[in-house]
Design a protein that fits this description.
This is Tyrosine-protein kinase ephrin type A/B receptor-like domain-containing protein. Pfam families: Ephrin_rec_like, RCC1. By secondary structure, the protein is mainly β. Among the domains are: 102 residues, Tumor Necrosis Factor Receptor, subunit A, domain 2 (Ribbon), CATH 2.10.50; 52 residues. Helices cover 3% and strands 25% of the residues.
């Protein structure tokens, strides 16, 4: 017999295993009268509910009695044993529906009941508010109803051993140890925490009922349909589920359930929301297997299970545990069967509880493997758990894998490369090239031996440098020998790519020059304008070179000109002939005068004379190349080829002039180049021929009276213009006539030519040629007037040339003249008047009045404005209607009264406040924000007006919007749809979530951002599951990223979904964006370093430092006594020793310093210079021996070492040692 458990306030007892007695109260009729046996009822099983009792008789009949308001007694109609309250049955009554059923056990809950048949079927009845009956809906059942989802097409396919009922849920235990549950899950009592929603998918066109609907859950697929449970309800065979049915639901499972009759309890078919769902059909409790017994409490469930150890599973036949075979595991106490190790894993032993991922370099393509396969040579796999040979990636170009099962590829060593992927070895660099770096991907990375070197073998690490005096301009194998330096060039270093051109001013006419000293300086008379000269260029005309090695010949000075070649040869021949005549013999005919000389005395020039002739004709001296300009000429610039005659107005009285002297102001000279001095006087001053009118020590003429020369150097004098005169000769300017006077002629000789202006005219300034008539409004009543007198303000004079004050007239009434000097009086404009003669201004009409006429002469012309009109300013010519939105009820006003905010007035000239009308909201929401409105405006989108006369419209709350104008109700506000948001009040539309954000609920005020490491590339996303992980080599550092960024050079991203990339370590670099593996980080080559993580390039070792190994994080300094003046060096051998006379006192120097005065150094590679000994001093820089230190003079001595001058030697009273 089944054990009984207490329910509410009664406990029935089995007596003699056949009769039922009451043990407690009878408040609901659930218990029998004390000691009373109903019809001698004999039972074999009892179920106790809340205020009611169920029993199975020995004949198999099921009875119930007690309280049954929700149908939990299973009687379809009212029974004759019911109490007056119609819900209570006082005596055990058979349940008619179960009369022909073989019931195994009965079970009571609080509001519903259940029975388990011997064939495994489950009957449920009573309340079904939360689907606790498991029949697929929430309608109550007053008679036992079979739970159809537990019955297959050919009978029961779920073998249950027991069921248990809670307050609002039901649980059942299957013979295989798993648990099913249905009904309310408000407290999680059904063991499922899924979200759900319903969507309509079809309507029966005849009945109008829903034919089927989709239940959307986040429960995984294999949990939903495991073992044919049909967790989503009845799935008719005629309804196929296609792949596209499951798409677009964010990786959740979608099932179809047939509904016959009415729609679900939520008729709107909208999202129910997050939380614990209620399940109207049985579903498997995920995560609970091998249960042995269970019991449903009021709002909770308890279960006890017995499980096999990990690595074993329950044998359903024997009840014992059996070990899982090779390639299979059982890793949980709930396992019903051994799980096959998935592809990418293996298990080499039996009885295991976990599969082992394939190690890097291996893979397992099939499930249930007992071992993994090796990636073949040339491929690699850097991660564990690979399930396909395709995951054995080919070694990228620049690397290789010589063995199988490689977890990573080796970089090609220096001197080799590999252009193809998936190779076992690398290709050696060809002859004539080398590669200092590892990981070469192309023959192009085999660098041609640099220019300046030769003779390379395959895989060579260094090249032989060309010796001084040679070069090799071609890289690689194009040239295997060094070429000699050509003429005009030299090479003084090893490894020269090109020979250096001889500097300007030098030349070299031989090959193989190895020092710059082998470039000879250009001799006198020549120059070297360009580098690399084979020969020097003779100086051109008007230049000379009197020292060797010039890069440009010096130009002849200003005041001289250059001799032509023929002129130089003639002068040289004459000089040599004169020298030979002095020696008693003549040169060859043509060299000089030989007339009268005997033929025997004519001879050729000697070698000395030829050398002298060549020197005098090669422009080697200033005198040979240049000659001074003659008297009367000049040259302005140096290097002149021709002399220039002095222009008119200038003269020159000496040889070698650089400019001509100008005739002084007041004089002139009208002939160019003819005023040359005729000689010099006793004092050496130049003399000139006598000339009429000339004076002083120059040949220029004074200007006659009536003319002038205002500047020096003039060739002609100018006549005095009208209004001026000149009464003296040699004038530099003319004298102007006084103001008030005029002179109409040119060339006037004296002041008598100046005449006074007549009355009615004037001359305002001196030097006037004519007098000007007085303009209108002015007069002049005297002779010699310098200005005209203006008529006073309030009067006018309309004519020119007035000569009396009484010609000015006062302005009449209605006119005015605002200032003096008026030609006419002006009529008063409309809006003003002038009521007296001689007015200087018109009086404006006051505000509130107007005058439309010109020339008014009385204030009576200003008239008050009527009602509805105004005159806002003084001096108004007419009154204006009050504008739209305003009114004026009084006459003579200067401003209108505006209608208040919230009202409008749509015509002009209103004279009543009653014309202002409130904004209406009966048809549309309107408002008037400002006072004085002509009309009311529709409330803009996002706002509404629900009261008349509003100045401002009300705004919608955040998360809602109104898309149209003129809303008159807050009910027009629409919640933002999922995937959109409104983050401010008064939205006219909701914005789609920006890329990188999503909004899962309606009415969102803002969107949620995708977490770091993910991105969302489009607008309007509705769920976090739409956020995609960044692929390897990319990252997203912030929330709400619209796209992922490539890992920058110097960093890499080995996995998906990274919020930040990993940095290459110090000593490495990586110059490409988007790298996915650490192997992309390359070691810094020799001669470079990287002192920080995440470097995208290596820094070159600076001068004075070197790096002799790859992957360096810093460079080494050259030791004291050595220096390094080239960057990027890779060996300490590159540090050069300082020469004698120099030293390097510090580490890392890029040049040696000269030994200062007072020191010397005769050994290479020294860090310090030796000091001059006591008794000596040193004045020489870079001294190489102690002999460079001079001894102190006799009777003087110094005890200090390193003295720098004789001033350091002090006087002593004894002779200094001679040695």
């Amino acid at each position: 017999h089944a054990a009984m458990r207490p329910r509410s306030a009664h406990t029935p007892q089995l007596v003699d295993a056949f009769r039922v007695f009451d043990a407690n109260g009878r408040t609901r009729g659930q218990a029998l009268a004390r000691g009373y046996v109903t019809r001698a009822l004999r039972v074999r099983s009892i179920g106790v509910g809340w205020h009611y009792t169920l029993a199975i008789g020995t004949d198999g009949q099921v009875y119930s009695w007690g309280y049954g308001e929700t149908g939990q007694l299973g009687h379809a109609r009212r029974q004759h044993h019911q109490s007056p309250d119609s819900h209570t049955v006082g005596v055990p009554t058979p349940i008619a529906v179960l009369e022909d059923e073989r019931i195994h056990s009965v079970h009571g809950g609080r509001f519903h009941s259940g029975a388990l048949a011997e064939d495994g079927r489950v009957f449920m009845w009573g309340s079904n508010v939360f689907g606790q009956l498991g029949v697929g809906d929430t309608a109550a059942r007053f008679e036992p109803t079979v739970v159809g989802s537990l019955v297959g097409q050919h009978g029961v396919h779920v073998n249950l051993t027991t069921i248990s009922l809670g307050t609002y849920h039901t649980v059942a235990l299957a013979d295989k140890g798993y648990v099913l549950a249905w009904g309310s899950n408000a407290m999680g009592q059904t063991g499922t925490s899924a979200l759900f929603e319903y969507r309509r998918t079809g309507v029966d066109t005849e009945s109008g009922n829903v034919a089927a609907y989709i239940e959307r859950s986040d429960m995984p697929l294999h949990h939903a349909w495991d073992n044919g449970m049909g967790s989503f309800g009845v799935l008719p065979e005629s309804l196929a589920i296609h792949e596209d049915t499951l798409m677009g639901v964010n990786s959740t499972v979608t099932g179809l359930r047939l509904v016959r009759g009415s729609e679900p309890t939520r008729p709107e078919f909208a999202r129910v929301g997050a939380g614990f769902a209620s399940w109207p059909t049985p579903r498997v409790v995920v995560g609970l297997m091998q249960a042995r017994s269970l019991s449903a409490g009021g709002l909770f469930t308890l279960a006890v299970r017995s499980a096999c150890p990990r690595g074993t599973v329950l044998n359903a036949t024997s009840g014992g545990c059996k070990r899982c075979p090779y390639g299979h595991v059982a890793n949980g106490l709930n396992a019903l069967g051994c799980r096959v190790c998935p592809a990418g894993t293996f298990r080499a032993t039996d009885g295991a509880n976990a599969c082992v991922p394939c190690a890097p370099g291996t893979y397992s393509p099939k499930p249930g493997a007992s071992g993994c396969l090796a990636c073949k040579a040339g491929t690699f796999n850097s991660f564990s758990g690979s399930s396909s040979q395709e995951q054995c990636m080919r070694c990228p170009a620049g690397s290789f894998a010589s063995e199988e099962s490689a977890a990573e590829c080796e970089l090609c060593p220096a001197g080799s490369y590999q252009p193809h992927a998936g190779e076992r070895s690398c290709v050696p660099c060809p002859q004539g090239t080398y590669s200092a770096a590892v990981g070469g991907k192309s023959a192009d990375e085999c660098i041609d031996c640099p220019v300046g070197s030769h003779g390379l073998a395959a895989r060579a690490a260094a090249c032989s440098l060309c010796p001084p005096g040679t070069r090799n301009p071609s890289p690689g194998g194009d040239s295997l020998a060094c070429e000699p330096c050509r003429e005009g060039t030299y090479s003084d270093t090893h490894g020269a790519r090109q020979c250096t051109k001889c500097p300007r001013g030098t030349f070299a006419n031989t090959t193989h020059a190895s020092t710059v000293e082998q470039c000879a300086p250009c001799p006198e008379g020549t120059y070297g304008p360009a580098e690399g000269a084979v020969a020097c260029v003779p100086c051109p005309v008007a230049t000379f070179a009197d020292v060797p090695g010039l890069v440009q010949c010096e130009r002849c000075d200003a005041g001289t000109r250059g001799r032509e070649d023929a002129e130089m040869e003639q002068a040289a021949a004459q000089a040599i002939a004169a020298r030979m005549d002095a020696a008693g013999a003549s040169a060859l005919p043509g060299d000089g005068p030989t007339e009268g000389q005997p033929p025997a005395q004519v001879r050729a020039r000697s070698a000395e004379e030829e050398e002298l002739f060549a020197a005098m004709t090669t422009r080697a001296t200033r005198d040979a190349a240049c000659v001074p300009c003659d008297i009367g000429t000049h040259s302005v610039t140096s290097g002149a080829l021709e002399r220039i005659e002095c222009a008119e107005g200038t003269f020159s009285g000496r040889r070698g002039a650089t400019e001509c002297e100008a005739c002084p102001a007041g004089t002139f000279l009208d002939v160019a180049g003819s005023w040359k001095p005729t000689g010099v006087d006793m004092s050496g001053q130049p003399t000139y021929p006598p000339k009429m009118g000339s004076s002083g020590a120059h040949p220029c003429f004074d200007c006659p009276a009536g003319s002038f020369a205002h500047a020096a150097g003039m060739g002609h004098c100018l006549e005095c213009p009208p209004g001026t005169f000149a009464d003296l000769t040699g004038s530099t300017e003319c004298v102007p006539c006084d103001a008030g006077f005029f002179q109409p002629f040119t060339g006037a000789l004296n002041s008598s030519y100046c005449q006074p202006c007549e009355p009615g005219t004037h001359a305002a300034s001196s030097g006037t040629g004519t007098c000007m008539p007085c303009p209108p409004g002015h007069y002049a009543d005297l002779y010699g007037s310098t200005e005209c007198v203006p008529c006073g303000a309030g009067s006018a004079l309309p004519t020119f040339g007035a000569n009396a004050t009484d010609m000015c007239s006062l302005c009449p009434l209605g006119t005015f003249a605002p200032s003096s000097g008026a030609a006419t009086c002006t009529r008063c404009p409309p809006g003003s008047f002038a009521d007296g003669e001689g007015s200087t201004e018109c009086t404006p009409c006051p505000r509130g009045t107007a005058n439309p006429y010109e020339g008014s002469n009385s204030s009576d012309a200003c008239v008050d404005c009527g009602v509805g009109t105004i005159a806002a300013e003084v001096g108004t010519s007419e009154c204006y209607n009050c504008t739209f939105g305003s009114y004026q009820e009084n006459p003579g006003r200067s401003e209108c009264v505006p209608c208040p905010a919230g009202k409008f007035l749509d015509f002009t000239g209103s004279f009543s406040r009653e014309d202002c009308t409130e904004c209406d909201v009966s048809v549309a929401g309107t408002h008037a924000e400002r006072s004085g409105s002509r009309e009311c405006d529709l409330c803009p989108p996002g706002t509404y007006a629900d009261e008349p006369g509003m100045a401002l419209c009300k705004t919608t709350r955040k998360g809602t919007y109104i898309p149209f104008s003129g809303s008159n109700s807050s009910e027009d506000a629409i919640p933002c749809g999922i995937g959109t948001f409104a983050d401010a009040r008064g939205a006219s539309e909701c914005e789609p979530c920006n890329a990188g954000g999503y909004a899962p609920d309606e009415g969102s005020e803002k969107c949620n951002g995708c977490p770091p490491g993910t991105f969302l590339p489009y607008l309007g996303a509705v769920d976090v599951s739409e956020c995609q992980k960044c692929r390897a080599g990319m990252y997203a550092p912030d929330r709400g990223s619209a796209s992922c960024k490539l890992c920058p050079p110097g960093e890499y991203g080995p996995t998906v979904g990274m919020a930040k990339c990993l940095r290459c370590p110090a000593g490495f670099f990586q110059d490409e964006a988007g790298s996915t593996t650490k192997t992309s980080c390359k070691r810094c080559p020799k001669g470079t370093f990287s002192d920080r993580e995440g470097a995208n390039r290596c820094q070159v070792c600076e001068v004075g430092r070197f790096s002799n190994e790859t992957g360096s994080t810093s460079c080494y300094s050259c030791a004291p006594g050595t220096y390094l003046d080239v960057i990027g060096m890779a060996s300490q051998d590159d540090c050069k020793a300082c020469e004698p006379g120099f030293h390097a006192p510090y580490y890392g120097m890029d040049a040696c310093e000269q030994c200062p005065q007072g020191t010397y150094n005769g050994i290479k590679g020294q860090s310090e210079c030796a000091k001059c000994p006591a008794g000596t001093y040193g004045q020489v820089l870079a001294a190489t021996e102690a002999d460079a230190c001079d001894g102190c003079p006799r009777w003087r001595f110094t005890s200090d070492q390193g003295s720098t001058g004789i001033q350091d030697c002090y006087y002593v009273h004894q002779a200094a040692p001679l040695d």
